[in-house]
Protein backbone atom coordinates (compact mmCIF):
# COMPACT_ATOMS: atom_id res chain seq x y z
CA UNK A 1 0.00 0.00 0.00
CA UNK A 2 1.19 3.50 -0.80
CA UNK A 3 2.49 5.84 1.89
CA UNK A 4 1.75 8.97 -0.16
CA UNK A 5 -1.32 11.22 0.14
CA UNK A 6 -4.67 9.44 -0.04
CA UNK A 7 -5.97 9.29 -3.63
CA UNK A 8 -9.29 10.75 -2.50
CA UNK A 9 -10.51 12.36 0.71
CA UNK A 10 -14.14 13.18 1.30
CA UNK A 11 -14.76 15.24 4.41
CA UNK A 12 -18.06 16.32 5.95
CA UNK A 13 -20.02 15.69 2.76
CA UNK A 14 -23.70 16.54 3.12
CA UNK A 15 -26.28 16.45 0.33
CA UNK A 16 -29.96 17.20 0.80
CA UNK A 17 -32.90 16.50 -1.49
CA UNK A 18 -36.44 17.65 -0.73
CA UNK A 19 -37.51 15.63 2.31
CA UNK A 20 -34.33 13.52 2.38
CA UNK A 21 -30.77 13.94 3.58
CA UNK A 22 -29.04 11.60 1.13
CA UNK A 23 -25.54 12.14 2.56
CA UNK A 24 -24.87 13.43 6.02
CA UNK A 25 -21.38 14.37 7.18
CA UNK A 26 -19.65 11.62 5.22
CA UNK A 27 -15.94 11.03 5.84
CA UNK A 28 -13.93 8.67 3.67
CA UNK A 29 -10.25 8.40 2.88
CA UNK A 30 -9.25 6.21 -0.02
CA UNK A 31 -5.60 5.21 -0.05
CA UNK A 32 -3.85 5.33 -3.43
CA UNK A 33 -3.30 1.96 -5.07
CA UNK A 34 -6.11 0.20 -3.24
CA UNK A 35 -9.53 -1.25 -3.97
CA UNK A 36 -12.06 0.46 -1.72
CA UNK A 37 -15.61 -0.86 -1.47
CA UNK A 38 -18.65 1.14 -0.41
CA UNK A 39 -21.52 -0.91 0.98
CA UNK A 40 -24.90 -0.01 2.45
CA UNK A 41 -28.61 -0.66 2.24
CA UNK A 42 -30.74 0.59 -0.62
CA UNK A 43 -31.12 4.31 -0.28
CA UNK A 44 -28.17 4.58 2.12
CA UNK A 45 -26.59 7.22 -0.12
CA UNK A 46 -23.89 5.36 -2.05
CA UNK A 47 -24.81 6.50 -5.57
CA UNK A 48 -25.30 10.07 -4.43
CA UNK A 49 -21.81 10.06 -2.96
CA UNK A 50 -20.29 8.62 -6.14
CA UNK A 51 -22.18 11.18 -8.25
CA UNK A 52 -20.68 13.91 -6.09
CA UNK A 53 -17.20 12.48 -6.58
CA UNK A 54 -17.78 12.28 -10.33
CA UNK A 55 -19.03 15.87 -10.56
CA UNK A 56 -22.60 14.92 -11.45
CA UNK A 57 -23.98 16.46 -8.28
CA UNK A 58 -22.78 19.27 -5.99
CA UNK A 59 -22.57 18.63 -2.24
CA UNK A 60 -24.31 21.18 0.02
CA UNK A 61 -21.41 20.96 2.45
CA UNK A 62 -18.02 19.33 2.72
CA UNK A 63 -14.76 19.14 0.85
CA UNK A 64 -13.21 16.81 -1.69
CA UNK A 65 -9.46 16.38 -2.01
CA UNK A 66 -7.74 14.54 -4.81
CA UNK A 67 -4.11 13.59 -4.07
CA UNK A 68 -4.08 16.12 -1.24
CA UNK A 69 -5.46 19.04 -3.24
CA UNK A 70 -8.93 20.43 -2.59
CA UNK A 71 -11.03 20.40 -5.77
CA UNK A 72 -14.40 21.72 -6.91
CA UNK A 73 -16.07 19.30 -9.30
CA UNK A 74 -18.82 20.98 -11.32
CA UNK A 75 -19.19 18.33 -14.00
CA UNK A 76 -17.87 14.92 -15.05
CA UNK A 77 -15.33 16.66 -17.27
CA UNK A 78 -13.91 18.36 -14.16
CA UNK A 79 -13.68 14.94 -12.54
CA UNK A 80 -11.99 13.41 -15.59
CA UNK A 81 -9.52 16.32 -15.66
CA UNK A 82 -8.63 15.35 -12.06
CA UNK A 83 -8.13 11.73 -13.08
CA UNK A 84 -11.48 10.41 -11.81
CA UNK A 85 -13.43 8.12 -14.15
CA UNK A 86 -16.71 6.27 -13.75
CA UNK A 87 -17.87 2.95 -15.16
CA UNK A 88 -21.65 2.92 -15.02
CA UNK A 89 -23.70 -0.16 -14.36
CA UNK A 90 -25.61 0.27 -17.59
CA UNK A 91 -22.98 0.27 -20.28
CA UNK A 92 -23.03 3.28 -22.54
CA UNK A 93 -21.48 1.77 -25.67
CA UNK A 94 -22.80 2.05 -29.22
CA UNK A 95 -23.31 -1.52 -30.44
CA UNK A 96 -22.87 -0.84 -34.12
CA UNK A 97 -19.49 0.87 -33.71
CA UNK A 98 -16.08 -0.68 -33.23
CA UNK A 99 -14.27 -0.72 -29.92
CA UNK A 100 -11.89 1.95 -31.22
CA UNK A 101 -14.74 4.22 -32.31
CA UNK A 102 -16.44 3.81 -28.95
CA UNK A 103 -13.27 4.59 -27.05
CA UNK A 104 -12.26 7.68 -29.02
CA UNK A 105 -15.79 9.10 -29.27
CA UNK A 106 -15.65 12.47 -27.49
CA UNK A 107 -11.90 12.13 -26.85
CA UNK A 108 -10.65 12.62 -30.40
CA UNK A 109 -8.27 15.35 -29.26
CA UNK A 110 -6.16 12.93 -27.20
CA UNK A 111 -4.70 10.61 -29.82
CA UNK A 112 -6.76 11.22 -32.96
CA UNK A 113 -9.09 8.60 -34.41
CA UNK A 114 -6.69 6.37 -36.32
CA UNK A 115 -3.34 4.64 -35.90
CA UNK A 116 -2.23 6.53 -32.83
CA UNK A 117 -5.48 5.86 -31.02
CA UNK A 118 -5.31 2.18 -31.98
CA UNK A 119 -1.75 1.92 -30.64
CA UNK A 120 -2.73 3.63 -27.40
CA UNK A 121 -5.69 1.27 -26.92
CA UNK A 122 -3.42 -1.74 -27.45
CA UNK A 123 -0.90 -0.30 -25.01
CA UNK A 124 -3.48 0.21 -22.27
CA UNK A 125 -5.04 -3.17 -22.95
CA UNK A 126 -1.63 -4.88 -22.62
CA UNK A 127 -0.54 -2.87 -19.61
CA UNK A 128 -3.61 -3.85 -17.58
CA UNK A 129 -4.28 -7.25 -19.14
CA UNK A 130 -7.69 -6.22 -20.46
CA UNK A 131 -7.59 -8.19 -23.72
CA UNK A 132 -9.42 -5.48 -25.66
CA UNK A 133 -9.23 -5.66 -29.48
CA UNK A 134 -9.70 -2.18 -31.03
CA UNK A 135 -11.24 -3.36 -34.29
CA UNK A 136 -13.93 -5.68 -32.97
CA UNK A 137 -17.53 -4.54 -33.27
CA UNK A 138 -19.05 -3.98 -29.85
CA UNK A 139 -22.15 -6.00 -30.78
CA UNK A 140 -19.92 -9.07 -31.11
CA UNK A 141 -18.70 -8.79 -27.52
CA UNK A 142 -20.06 -10.52 -24.45
CA UNK A 143 -20.98 -8.69 -21.28
CA UNK A 144 -17.59 -9.12 -19.59
CA UNK A 145 -15.72 -7.86 -22.66
CA UNK A 146 -18.01 -4.82 -22.94
CA UNK A 147 -17.26 -3.97 -19.38
CA UNK A 148 -13.52 -4.13 -20.11
CA UNK A 149 -14.09 -1.71 -22.99
CA UNK A 150 -15.84 0.66 -20.57
CA UNK A 151 -12.89 0.40 -18.19
CA UNK A 152 -10.45 0.99 -21.01
CA UNK A 153 -12.45 4.01 -22.17
CA UNK A 154 -12.01 5.58 -18.76
CA UNK A 155 -8.28 4.72 -18.61
CA UNK A 156 -7.82 6.15 -22.11
CA UNK A 157 -9.04 9.48 -20.76
CA UNK A 158 -6.32 9.37 -18.14
CA UNK A 159 -8.24 8.17 -15.09
CA UNK A 160 -6.14 7.17 -12.09
CA UNK A 161 -9.18 6.71 -9.86
CA UNK A 162 -11.96 4.45 -11.15
CA UNK A 163 -15.46 4.41 -9.75
CA UNK A 164 -17.41 1.23 -10.54
CA UNK A 165 -21.13 1.07 -9.81
CA UNK A 166 -22.18 -2.51 -9.02
CA UNK A 167 -19.80 -3.92 -11.61
CA UNK A 168 -20.59 -7.58 -10.98
CA UNK A 169 -24.39 -7.38 -11.13
CA UNK A 170 -24.47 -8.49 -14.77
CA UNK A 171 -21.58 -10.98 -14.76
CA UNK A 172 -21.46 -14.77 -14.46
CA UNK A 173 -19.03 -16.22 -11.87
CA UNK A 174 -16.19 -16.78 -14.37
CA UNK A 175 -16.49 -13.17 -15.54
CA UNK A 176 -16.50 -11.92 -11.96
CA UNK A 177 -13.18 -13.69 -11.40
CA UNK A 178 -11.79 -12.10 -14.55
CA UNK A 179 -12.95 -8.66 -13.48
CA UNK A 180 -11.35 -9.10 -10.07
CA UNK A 181 -8.12 -10.13 -11.81
CA UNK A 182 -8.32 -6.88 -13.80
CA UNK A 183 -8.93 -4.83 -10.66
CA UNK A 184 -5.92 -6.39 -8.94
CA UNK A 185 -3.83 -5.58 -12.01
CA UNK A 186 -5.01 -1.94 -11.99
CA UNK A 187 -4.04 -1.75 -8.35
CA UNK A 188 -0.58 -3.20 -9.00
CA UNK A 189 -0.10 -0.46 -11.56
CA UNK A 190 -0.84 2.11 -8.86
CA UNK A 191 -4.43 2.95 -9.78
CA UNK A 192 -7.20 3.31 -7.24
CA UNK A 193 -10.58 1.62 -7.52
CA UNK A 194 -13.73 2.62 -5.64
CA UNK A 195 -16.68 0.34 -6.12
CA UNK A 196 -20.24 -0.06 -4.93
CA UNK A 197 -21.58 -3.56 -4.43
CA UNK A 198 -24.38 -5.46 -2.73
CA UNK A 199 -22.56 -8.78 -3.00
CA UNK A 200 -20.77 -8.92 0.30
CA UNK A 201 -18.79 -12.10 -0.31
CA UNK A 202 -17.35 -10.50 -3.44
CA UNK A 203 -16.54 -7.34 -1.53
CA UNK A 204 -14.71 -9.42 1.04
CA UNK A 205 -12.68 -11.20 -1.61
CA UNK A 206 -11.49 -8.19 -3.62
CA UNK A 207 -11.49 -5.05 -1.45
CA UNK A 208 -8.61 -3.80 0.69
CA UNK A 209 -10.89 -1.53 2.66
CA UNK A 210 -14.66 -1.43 3.09
CA UNK A 211 -16.67 1.62 4.15
CA UNK A 212 -20.19 1.02 5.43
CA UNK A 213 -22.80 3.73 4.90
CA UNK A 214 -26.04 3.64 6.85
CA UNK A 215 -28.86 6.15 6.40
CA UNK A 216 -26.59 8.64 4.66
CA UNK A 217 -23.61 8.57 6.95
CA UNK A 218 -20.39 6.58 7.31
CA UNK A 219 -20.73 4.20 10.24
CA UNK A 220 -17.56 2.15 9.95
CA UNK A 221 -14.52 1.37 7.86
CA UNK A 222 -13.28 -2.20 8.10
CA UNK A 223 -10.78 -4.59 6.57
CA UNK A 224 -12.05 -7.76 4.93
CA UNK A 225 -10.02 -10.04 7.20
CA UNK A 226 -11.78 -8.61 10.26
CA UNK A 227 -15.44 -9.23 9.38
CA UNK A 228 -17.75 -11.89 7.94
CA UNK A 229 -20.40 -11.21 5.29
CA UNK A 230 -23.05 -11.50 7.96
CA UNK A 231 -21.33 -8.99 10.26
CA UNK A 232 -20.98 -6.63 7.34
CA UNK A 233 -24.69 -6.93 6.58
CA UNK A 234 -25.48 -6.27 10.23
CA UNK A 235 -23.32 -3.14 10.18
CA UNK A 236 -25.32 -2.01 7.16
CA UNK A 237 -28.72 -2.41 8.76
CA UNK A 238 -27.62 -1.56 12.30
CA UNK A 239 -29.21 -4.65 13.83
CA UNK A 240 -29.15 -8.42 13.65
CA UNK A 241 -30.42 -10.09 10.50
CA UNK A 242 -33.37 -12.47 10.48
CA UNK A 243 -32.66 -16.10 9.63
CA UNK A 244 -34.07 -17.02 6.21
CA UNK A 245 -37.22 -19.16 6.03
CA UNK A 246 -36.83 -22.87 5.57
CA UNK A 247 -38.09 -24.16 2.27
CA UNK A 248 -39.98 -27.24 1.32
CA UNK A 249 -41.45 -28.19 -2.03
CA UNK A 250 -44.86 -26.77 -2.86
CA UNK A 251 -44.92 -27.87 -6.50
CA UNK A 252 -48.30 -29.27 -7.62
CA UNK A 253 -49.31 -30.95 -10.87
CA UNK A 254 -51.62 -28.13 -11.96
CA UNK A 255 -50.08 -26.39 -14.99
CA UNK A 256 -50.19 -22.60 -14.97
CA UNK A 257 -47.94 -21.68 -17.88
CA UNK A 258 -47.48 -24.05 -20.80
CA UNK A 259 -45.21 -23.26 -23.71
CA UNK A 260 -45.19 -25.65 -26.59
CA UNK A 261 -42.68 -25.42 -29.43
CA UNK A 262 -42.41 -21.65 -29.11
CA UNK A 263 -40.18 -19.99 -31.68
CA UNK A 264 -39.53 -16.27 -32.09
CA UNK A 265 -37.44 -14.87 -34.94
CA UNK A 266 -35.66 -11.55 -35.15
CA UNK A 267 -35.78 -9.23 -38.18
CA UNK A 268 -33.10 -11.25 -39.96
CA UNK A 269 -35.03 -14.49 -39.56
CA UNK A 270 -32.72 -15.94 -36.91
CA UNK A 271 -34.53 -17.92 -34.20
CA UNK A 272 -33.87 -15.99 -30.97
CA UNK A 273 -36.24 -18.30 -29.10
CA UNK A 274 -35.92 -21.71 -30.65
CA UNK A 275 -38.54 -24.40 -30.17
CA UNK A 276 -38.98 -23.84 -26.44
CA UNK A 277 -41.35 -26.09 -24.51
CA UNK A 278 -41.86 -25.89 -20.77
CA UNK A 279 -44.53 -26.09 -18.11
CA UNK A 280 -44.68 -24.24 -14.80
CA UNK A 281 -47.10 -25.59 -12.21
CA UNK A 282 -48.89 -24.02 -9.29
CA UNK A 283 -46.44 -23.58 -6.45
CA UNK A 284 -43.41 -23.95 -8.68
CA UNK A 285 -40.52 -21.58 -9.35
CA UNK A 286 -38.86 -22.39 -12.64
CA UNK A 287 -35.49 -20.71 -13.04
CA UNK A 288 -33.87 -20.03 -16.37
CA UNK A 289 -30.09 -19.77 -16.30
CA UNK A 290 -28.22 -18.29 -19.21
CA UNK A 291 -25.57 -15.80 -20.17
CA UNK A 292 -27.30 -12.52 -20.93
CA UNK A 293 -28.40 -12.25 -24.55
CA UNK A 294 -29.27 -15.91 -25.13
CA UNK A 295 -32.97 -15.38 -25.67
CA UNK A 296 -34.18 -14.79 -22.11
CA UNK A 297 -35.46 -11.28 -22.90
CA UNK A 298 -37.29 -12.48 -26.01
CA UNK A 299 -38.79 -15.44 -24.17
CA UNK A 300 -40.26 -13.06 -21.61
CA UNK A 301 -41.48 -10.66 -24.28
CA UNK A 302 -43.18 -13.53 -26.09
CA UNK A 303 -45.07 -14.53 -22.94
CA UNK A 304 -46.07 -10.92 -22.31
CA UNK A 305 -47.29 -10.44 -25.88
CA UNK A 306 -44.64 -7.89 -26.71
CA UNK A 307 -43.17 -10.06 -29.48
CA UNK A 308 -45.13 -12.20 -31.97
CA UNK A 309 -44.58 -15.97 -32.10
CA UNK A 310 -43.29 -17.53 -35.26
CA UNK A 311 -44.46 -20.95 -34.14
CA UNK A 312 -45.86 -22.67 -31.09
CA UNK A 313 -48.47 -21.94 -28.42
CA UNK A 314 -48.46 -20.34 -24.99
CA UNK A 315 -51.25 -21.05 -22.51
CA UNK A 316 -52.12 -19.63 -19.15
CA UNK A 317 -54.12 -22.41 -17.52
CA UNK A 318 -56.55 -23.38 -20.29
CA UNK A 319 -56.48 -20.01 -22.00
CA UNK A 320 -54.43 -19.65 -25.13
CA UNK A 321 -52.61 -16.32 -25.07
CA UNK A 322 -51.93 -16.00 -28.80
CA UNK A 323 -53.09 -12.64 -30.11
CA UNK A 324 -53.94 -11.29 -26.68
CA UNK A 325 -52.65 -7.79 -25.90
CA UNK A 326 -50.16 -7.31 -23.07
CA UNK A 327 -52.73 -5.53 -20.91
CA UNK A 328 -55.21 -8.42 -21.26
CA UNK A 329 -52.48 -10.89 -20.33
CA UNK A 330 -51.84 -8.93 -17.17
CA UNK A 331 -55.58 -8.92 -16.44
CA UNK A 332 -55.66 -12.67 -17.01
CA UNK A 333 -53.26 -13.02 -14.07
CA UNK A 334 -49.68 -12.43 -15.13
CA UNK A 335 -47.46 -10.24 -12.97
CA UNK A 336 -44.38 -8.90 -14.67
CA UNK A 337 -41.13 -7.67 -13.13
CA UNK A 338 -39.26 -6.43 -16.20
CA UNK A 339 -35.55 -6.52 -16.76
CA UNK A 340 -35.33 -2.84 -17.63
CA UNK A 341 -37.16 -1.04 -14.87
CA UNK A 342 -36.68 2.36 -16.45
CA UNK A 343 -38.17 1.42 -19.82
CA UNK A 344 -40.91 -0.99 -18.85
CA UNK A 345 -41.34 -0.83 -15.11
CA UNK A 346 -41.80 2.76 -14.04
CA UNK A 347 -42.99 6.19 -15.05
CA UNK A 348 -39.96 7.95 -13.64
CA UNK A 349 -41.38 11.45 -13.59
CA UNK A 350 -44.66 10.39 -11.98
CA UNK A 351 -45.36 10.02 -8.26
CA UNK A 352 -45.22 6.64 -6.57
CA UNK A 353 -49.02 6.31 -6.35
CA UNK A 354 -49.32 6.76 -10.10
CA UNK A 355 -46.71 4.08 -10.56
CA UNK A 356 -48.89 1.81 -8.41
CA UNK A 357 -51.61 2.12 -11.06
CA UNK A 358 -49.31 1.56 -14.04
CA UNK A 359 -50.28 -1.62 -15.87
CA UNK A 360 -53.16 -2.22 -13.45
CA UNK A 361 -55.40 0.69 -14.31
CA UNK A 362 -58.50 -1.43 -14.80
CA UNK A 363 -58.57 -3.35 -11.53
CA UNK A 364 -59.12 -2.77 -7.83
CA UNK A 365 -57.80 -1.19 -5.71
CA UNK A 366 -57.17 1.35 -8.44
CA UNK A 367 -60.78 1.42 -9.62
CA UNK A 368 -64.14 0.64 -8.05
CA UNK A 369 -67.68 0.17 -9.24
CA UNK A 370 -69.81 3.21 -8.74
CA UNK A 371 -72.03 5.84 -10.21
CA UNK A 372 -70.79 8.71 -12.28
CA UNK A 373 -72.49 12.06 -11.90
CA UNK A 374 -73.36 12.21 -8.21
CA UNK A 375 -75.08 10.05 -5.66
CA UNK A 376 -78.46 10.08 -7.33
CA UNK A 377 -78.86 9.30 -10.98
CA UNK A 378 -75.80 9.18 -13.24
CA UNK A 379 -74.44 6.10 -14.97
CA UNK A 380 -73.10 3.01 -13.27
CA UNK A 381 -69.48 2.37 -14.23
CA UNK A 382 -65.94 1.96 -13.15
CA UNK A 383 -64.41 4.85 -11.24
CA UNK A 384 -60.87 5.70 -10.32
CA UNK A 385 -60.52 4.89 -6.63
CA UNK A 386 -58.19 7.53 -5.29
CA UNK A 387 -58.42 6.35 -1.70
CA UNK A 388 -57.91 2.75 -2.82
CA UNK A 389 -54.69 3.20 -4.72
CA UNK A 390 -53.23 5.69 -2.29
CA UNK A 391 -53.65 3.43 0.68
CA UNK A 392 -52.47 0.44 -1.32
CA UNK A 393 -49.34 2.35 -2.33
CA UNK A 394 -48.77 3.09 1.36
CA UNK A 395 -49.14 -0.62 2.07
CA UNK A 396 -46.55 -1.57 -0.57
CA UNK A 397 -44.16 1.05 0.80
CA UNK A 398 -44.59 -0.53 4.24
CA UNK A 399 -44.55 -4.21 3.29
CA UNK A 400 -41.64 -3.92 0.90
CA UNK A 401 -39.73 -1.36 2.95
CA UNK A 402 -39.53 1.22 0.16
CA UNK A 403 -37.47 4.04 1.67
CA UNK A 404 -39.19 7.26 0.69
CA UNK A 405 -40.39 10.43 2.45
CA UNK A 406 -43.94 9.90 1.07
CA UNK A 407 -45.86 8.50 -1.91
CA UNK A 408 -46.09 11.83 -3.72
CA UNK A 409 -42.41 12.01 -4.68
CA UNK A 410 -41.45 10.91 -8.20
CA UNK A 411 -40.15 7.42 -8.88
CA UNK A 412 -36.99 9.05 -10.25
CA UNK A 413 -36.15 10.39 -6.80
CA UNK A 414 -35.99 6.89 -5.27
CA UNK A 415 -32.69 5.06 -5.10
CA UNK A 416 -32.32 2.21 -7.60
CA UNK A 417 -32.97 -0.53 -5.08
CA UNK A 418 -36.07 1.20 -3.74
CA UNK A 419 -37.46 1.56 -7.27
CA UNK A 420 -37.03 -2.17 -7.66
CA UNK A 421 -38.82 -2.89 -4.36
CA UNK A 422 -41.76 -0.75 -5.51
CA UNK A 423 -42.09 -2.73 -8.76
CA UNK A 424 -41.86 -6.08 -7.01
CA UNK A 425 -44.47 -4.96 -4.48
CA UNK A 426 -46.82 -3.78 -7.20
CA UNK A 427 -46.53 -6.90 -9.30
CA UNK A 428 -47.15 -9.15 -6.30
CA UNK A 429 -50.20 -7.12 -5.33
CA UNK A 430 -52.84 -8.29 -7.75
CA UNK A 431 -52.88 -11.95 -6.82
CA UNK A 432 -51.17 -13.08 -10.00
CA UNK A 433 -51.34 -16.73 -11.04
CA UNK A 434 -48.04 -16.41 -12.84
CA UNK A 435 -45.18 -14.06 -12.08
CA UNK A 436 -42.54 -13.36 -14.68
CA UNK A 437 -39.62 -12.17 -12.59
CA UNK A 438 -36.60 -10.91 -14.51
CA UNK A 439 -33.76 -10.15 -12.09
CA UNK A 440 -36.22 -9.43 -9.25
CA UNK A 441 -33.54 -8.48 -6.74
CA UNK A 442 -31.03 -6.75 -9.01
CA UNK A 443 -29.62 -3.75 -7.18
CA UNK A 444 -31.38 -4.42 -3.88
CA UNK A 445 -29.42 -4.84 -0.67
CA UNK A 446 -29.06 -8.16 1.16
CA UNK A 447 -31.81 -7.38 3.66
CA UNK A 448 -34.32 -6.39 0.98
CA UNK A 449 -33.23 -9.36 -1.11
CA UNK A 450 -34.09 -11.85 1.58
CA UNK A 451 -37.38 -10.01 2.21
CA UNK A 452 -38.28 -10.29 -1.50
CA UNK A 453 -37.32 -13.97 -1.46
CA UNK A 454 -39.60 -14.49 1.54
CA UNK A 455 -42.47 -12.76 -0.28
CA UNK A 456 -41.89 -14.97 -3.32
CA UNK A 457 -41.74 -18.17 -1.28
CA UNK A 458 -44.86 -17.19 0.59
CA UNK A 459 -46.77 -16.54 -2.66
CA UNK A 460 -45.41 -19.80 -4.07
CA UNK A 461 -46.75 -21.68 -1.07
CA UNK A 462 -50.14 -20.14 -1.88
CA UNK A 463 -49.91 -21.50 -5.42
CA UNK A 464 -48.11 -18.81 -7.41
CA UNK A 465 -46.14 -20.06 -10.43
CA UNK A 466 -42.94 -18.12 -11.12
CA UNK A 467 -40.69 -17.88 -14.13
CA UNK A 468 -37.44 -16.63 -12.65
CA UNK A 469 -34.68 -15.16 -14.77
CA UNK A 470 -31.59 -14.00 -12.97
CA UNK A 471 -27.91 -13.39 -13.47
CA UNK A 472 -27.45 -14.05 -9.75
CA UNK A 473 -26.73 -17.76 -9.72
CA UNK A 474 -27.07 -18.08 -5.96
CA UNK A 475 -30.56 -16.67 -6.31
CA UNK A 476 -31.44 -19.02 -9.17
CA UNK A 477 -30.17 -22.07 -7.35
CA UNK A 478 -31.58 -21.05 -3.97
CA UNK A 479 -35.05 -20.13 -5.21
CA UNK A 480 -35.82 -22.50 -8.09
CA UNK A 481 -37.69 -25.79 -7.85
CA UNK A 482 -36.71 -26.53 -11.43
CA UNK A 483 -33.72 -25.14 -13.30
CA UNK A 484 -33.37 -24.97 -17.07
CA UNK A 485 -30.46 -23.62 -19.06
CA UNK A 486 -30.93 -21.46 -22.16
CA UNK A 487 -28.24 -21.15 -24.82
CA UNK A 488 -28.70 -19.41 -28.18
CA UNK A 489 -32.46 -19.46 -27.73
CA UNK A 490 -32.74 -23.18 -26.95
CA UNK A 491 -33.36 -24.91 -23.67
CA UNK A 492 -30.28 -27.09 -23.60
CA UNK A 493 -30.21 -28.61 -20.19
CA UNK A 494 -31.81 -29.17 -16.85
CA UNK A 495 -30.01 -28.97 -13.52
CA UNK A 496 -30.94 -30.03 -10.02
CA UNK A 497 -31.01 -26.94 -7.80
CA UNK A 498 -30.46 -29.15 -4.74
CA UNK A 499 -27.01 -30.26 -5.85
CA UNK A 500 -25.59 -27.95 -8.52
CA UNK A 501 -22.98 -25.31 -7.60
CA UNK A 502 -22.82 -21.82 -9.14
CA UNK A 503 -19.58 -22.77 -10.92
CA UNK A 504 -21.13 -25.86 -12.48
CA UNK A 505 -24.17 -23.87 -13.53
CA UNK A 506 -21.89 -21.20 -14.97
CA UNK A 507 -20.21 -23.77 -17.21
CA UNK A 508 -23.53 -25.19 -18.37
CA UNK A 509 -24.55 -21.65 -19.30
CA UNK A 510 -21.54 -21.16 -21.51
CA UNK A 511 -22.23 -24.44 -23.30
CA UNK A 512 -19.51 -26.55 -21.69
CA UNK A 513 -21.06 -29.98 -21.26
CA UNK A 514 -24.06 -28.94 -23.33
CA UNK A 515 -27.21 -30.88 -22.63
CA UNK A 516 -25.92 -32.70 -19.61
CA UNK A 517 -27.52 -32.54 -16.21
CA UNK A 518 -25.43 -31.87 -13.17
N1 LIG B 1 -32.43 13.30 -7.49
C1 LIG B 1 -32.96 13.00 -6.30
N2 LIG B 1 -34.03 13.66 -5.82
C2 LIG B 1 -34.57 13.35 -4.61
N3 LIG B 1 -34.09 12.38 -3.80
C3 LIG B 1 -33.03 11.69 -4.23
C4 LIG B 1 -32.41 11.95 -5.50
N4 LIG B 1 -31.36 11.09 -5.64
C5 LIG B 1 -31.33 10.33 -4.53
N5 LIG B 1 -32.33 10.70 -3.68
C6 LIG B 1 -32.60 10.10 -2.35
O1 LIG B 1 -31.38 10.07 -1.63
C7 LIG B 1 -31.28 8.86 -0.86
C8 LIG B 1 -29.99 8.15 -1.22
O2 LIG B 1 -30.10 7.60 -2.54
P1 LIG B 1 -28.91 6.87 -3.28
O3 LIG B 1 -29.35 6.63 -4.69
O4 LIG B 1 -27.64 7.60 -3.07
O5 LIG B 1 -28.85 5.49 -2.49
P2 LIG B 1 -27.99 4.18 -2.77
O6 LIG B 1 -27.26 3.88 -1.50
O7 LIG B 1 -27.17 4.33 -3.98
O8 LIG B 1 -29.14 3.09 -2.99
P3 LIG B 1 -29.26 1.77 -3.94
O9 LIG B 1 -28.46 0.71 -3.28
O10 LIG B 1 -30.72 1.45 -3.86
O11 LIG B 1 -28.81 2.16 -5.30
C9 LIG B 1 -32.55 8.07 -1.15
O12 LIG B 1 -33.46 8.33 -0.11
C10 LIG B 1 -33.05 8.65 -2.45
O13 LIG B 1 -34.46 8.55 -2.53
UniProtKB/TrEMBL annotation:
Residues 8-240, 257-513 form the ABC transporter domain. It comes from the Bacteria. The keyword ATP-binding applies. Keywords: ATP-binding, Nucleotide-binding, Repeat, Transport. SMART domains: AAA. One of its GO terms (molecular function) is ATP binding. InterPro entries: AAA+_ATPase, ABC_carbohydrate_import_ATPase, ABC_transporter-like_ATP-bd, ABC_transporter-like_CS, P-loop_NTPase. This is ABC transporter ATP-binding protein. It comes from Actinoallomurus oryzae.
